[in-house]
Amino acid sequence: MLKKILSISGRSGLYRMVAQARGALVVEALATGKRGLAYSHDKVTSLGDIAMYTQSDEVPLSEVLTKIKEKENGAPVALSPKADKEELRTYLASVLPDFDRDRVYPTDIAKLISWYNILIQSGITDFSVQEEAAPEDDKKAE
User: HSE of 32 in the Cβ direction (CA atoms, 13 Å)?
Assistant: First the structure.
């Protein structure tokens, strides 16, 4: 599911990839449902490709989101993304205790909380990376 959810640099919120057009992607804002285009010059990143730094390795965003979901029992995070940086760090430490405090900035934590809340409010609660196997299944069905 996270492979088709996109972050577009310079635009707030998250977007679902709907289709590909010539030189652009057709995207739909998760919060509003409005459709638009993301052009080839836009910096587009799939949430499935993002990871968070820890002291020993990198943890895929899907695992971090799943841990937040478990901590919050599937509800949105009550902590505001605009909270004090120490509150943000304390919150992430409760979810991912060994996160790298030098390379994960408070703005990254705020974005993580914001993204999690957008996903939950949009009804996206499955953060697994199982969708990578789905295209092969689709090809077999054809």
Answer: 7
